[in-house]
């Protein structure tokens, strides 16, 4: 007997989990007593509703037919539209482990390892959970479901430590609803049994690599692998074409189409323009999942759906001209961490900067177009302090922005910032540099004190 398709207007009316199997191009509800039994020859849609929010997933069996896979993708888009369309949605494809997340994130939980790295723009990315992924120069988060360990070896950076603690707190309180405990491992980094039992015991601490790649260039190198694809049905058939690699621009996104961004270590993003068709949206969603297999990406690689007009920073950070497309053409001040240790000037922009971005161990440049400020941290080395002006002159010479010929350079010392300098920051607290508020120990108290 052929069953009728479901009424999309009726889904998601109750809290909890609902599951459908794709059958004859329609969705067939699964009885609750059969929840947890997924067959490799089928495709499924799973919806969990809680309060005003929801998680929508599709699960694709290894032996599912092309028609079933295509129907699952299309029905996911249709259901998402019926539910109102969340601005950002994290979509789990199936494979053989997808259901563990849907049924209960803490049941049969498999350990996850996150790598927190960067000198200024610290980002956390999931890596393979094995001891070979660890190194003595970066921060790592071990997620065991009900327990999280923030592992901070002695050579890891201050901002990496703060970012790691903040990320672990978010997972524990938001993703786990307060059901997870966070352990901070600083002095116990090489002795904690709970952490090292997942990596062969404490003896493994003596066998780790000293440090990973250069912090300054780590994410810059990752950007070289960026690839942007366009999904369009303008010709009548769905076409997926690579349009940019290495450098992607906001202006390349067209509201009438869907796009797929492979951000390497950061995962795969599916951007849906407001004017793209249902066919384009479902094809992008489906192709994003196929892309993981085609490129043989790790099974933990996230696929994130992003709606035009509600793009999160995790997506926009990869587009060098995004702010230009979003804001007026008036110049926005830029903050840079600048280094010439190798003899070649390295400039790394600090996105969405604030006063906290000024690190007392560095010399930094605030570019206000016709005025260049060199900020010298109290902990900068004598050589860095002496060479601050020269570094700024090199930056000004190599920068191609159109400026007034009388652009000036002013040196600012930590704790002696001028009112003009302070106004370039969203808010300024004079006490921040007078106390130990920026220390890792104090941030630990602020993040985890009740």
Descriptive labels:
alpha+beta, Severin, six-stranded mixed sheet, five-stranded mixed sheet, globular
In a nutshell, what does this entry contain?
Helix content is 24%, strand content 25%.
What does this structure look like?
This is Gelsolin repeat protein. InterPro entries: ADF-H/Gelsolin-like_dom_sf, Gelsolin-like_dom, Villin/Gelsolin. The strands form four sheets. Strands 5-15-14-13-11-12 form a six-stranded mixed sheet, with helices on one face. Strands 7-6-8-9-10 form a five-stranded mixed sheet. A hairpin with a 6-residue loop joins strand 11 and strand 12. The protein is 24% helix and 25% strand. It has 450 residues and is α+β, with helices and mostly antiparallel strands. The longest helix has 18 residues, at 158-175. It has twelve helices and 20 strands.
Alpha-carbon Rg, integer? 25 Å
| Strand elements, count | 20
Distance between the termini: 59 Å
With strands numbered from the N-terminus, the spatial order across the biggest sheet is: 5-15-14-13-11-12
Q: Determine and state the CATH class of the largest domain.
A: Alpha Beta
pLDDT below 50 for ≥5 consecutive residues: which ranges? 87-104, 324-329
Helix content: 10-25%
By secondary-structure content and strand pairing, the structural class works out as alpha+beta
Question: How many domains is the backbone divided into?
Answer: 4
What is the name of the CATH topology of the largest domain? Severin
Number of helices: 12
Characterize the biggest β-sheet.
6 strands, mixed
CATH superfamily of the largest domain: Severin
* Shape label: globular
CATH architecture name of the largest domain: 3-Layer(aba) Sandwich
Q: Name the beta content range.
A: 25-35%
Give the mean pLDDT. Answer: 77
């Amino acid at each position: 007997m052929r069953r009728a398709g479901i009424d999309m207007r009726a889904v998601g009316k109750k809290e909890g989990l609902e599951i459908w199997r794709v059958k004859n191009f329609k969705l067939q509800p699964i009885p609750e007593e059969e929840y947890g039994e997924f067959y490799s020859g089928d495709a499924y849609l799973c919806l969990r509703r809680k309060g005003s929010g929801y998680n929508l997933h599709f699960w694709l069996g290894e032996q599912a037919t092309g028609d079933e896979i295509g129907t699952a993708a299309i029905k996911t888009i249709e259901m998402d539209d019926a539910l109102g369309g969340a601005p950002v949605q994290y979509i789990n494809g199936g494979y053989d482990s997808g259901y563990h997340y849907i049924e209960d994130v803490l049941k049969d939980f498999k350990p996850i390892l996150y790598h927190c790295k960067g000198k200024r723009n610290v980002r956390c990315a999931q890596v393979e959970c094995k001891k070979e992924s660890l190194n003595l120069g970066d921060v790592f988060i071990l997620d065991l479901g009900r327990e999280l360990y923030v592992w901070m070896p002695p050579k890891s950076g201050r901002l990496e430590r703060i970012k790691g603690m903040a990320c672990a707190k978010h997972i524990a309180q938001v993703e786990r609803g307060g059901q997870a405990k966070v352990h901070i491992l600083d002095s116990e980094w090489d002795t904690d049994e709970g952490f090292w039992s997942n990596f062969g015991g404490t003896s493994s601490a003596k066998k780790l690599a000293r440090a990973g790649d250069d912090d300054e260039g780590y994410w810059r190198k990752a950007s070289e692998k960026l690839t942007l694809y366009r999904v369009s049905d303008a010709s009548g058939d769905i076409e997926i074409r690579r349009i940019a690699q290495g450098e992607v621009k906001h202006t390349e996104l067209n509201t009438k189409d869907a796009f797929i961004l492979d951000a390497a270590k950061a995962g795969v993003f599916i951007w849906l323009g407001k004017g793209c068709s249902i066919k384009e949206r479902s094809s992008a969603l489906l192709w994003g999942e196929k892309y993981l297999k085609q490129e043989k990406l790790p099974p933990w690689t996230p696929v994130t759906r992003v709606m035009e007009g509600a793009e999160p920073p995790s997506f926009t950070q990869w587009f060098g001209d995004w702010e230009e497309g979003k804001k007026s053409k008036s110049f926005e001040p830029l903050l840079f961490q600048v280094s010439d240790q190798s003899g070649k000037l390295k400039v790394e922009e600090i996105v969405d900067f604030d006063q906290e971005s000024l690190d007392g161990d560095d010399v930094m440049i605030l570019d206000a177009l016709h005025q260049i400020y060199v900020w010298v941290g109290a902990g900068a080395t004598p050589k860095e302090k002496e060479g601050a002006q020269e570094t700024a002159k090199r930056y000004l010479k190599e920068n191609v922005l159109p400026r007034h010929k009388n652009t000036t350079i002013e040196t600012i010392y930590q704790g002696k910032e001028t009112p003009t300098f302070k106004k370039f920051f969203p808010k300024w607290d004079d006490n921040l540099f007078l106390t130990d508020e920026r220390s890792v120990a104090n941030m630990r108290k602020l993040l985890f004190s009740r």
